[in-house]
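Quick note —
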Amino acid sequence: MSDRLFTFHPRVLALMAGVMGLSLLAVFGVIWVRLPAESRESFSWFQRITLLVFFGAILWILYRMTTLRVTAYADGLRVRNVFKSYTLTWAEISGLRFRPGDAWLQLFDADGNRIGILAVQAAEGARASRAAKELAAVARDHGAGANRPPKS
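Predicted structure written out below.
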């Protein structure tokens, strides 16, 4: 995909995830350092590795939350959510919906499946509403929704 037409990523969620990640590092770092030496030594290597893997998984999820985005190109749309990314052509998109009360923008594909676009979420307020409208306009201009209307 080339010719980027529109990109949006949430600021509020990225800030919150970044602060949470730094806080976790600081709190658990201080706890580990403040533990008495005999307590630290009571952890086996397996327990230490398990804690590091668990901690790493949490930091990875927070990192993915900071990198949520939706990008429109001349030939389609790329959506990066926390656990999965999607690449769709405009012909595969039947509609977008962001109604009051929705947590995030909803994309409906040509098969009737609903995909949440987590980058455009209600927590962003008016900024997200503007982004949803801009993205919908880009989608219409490139032929999205020509196949059938979105399901409710």
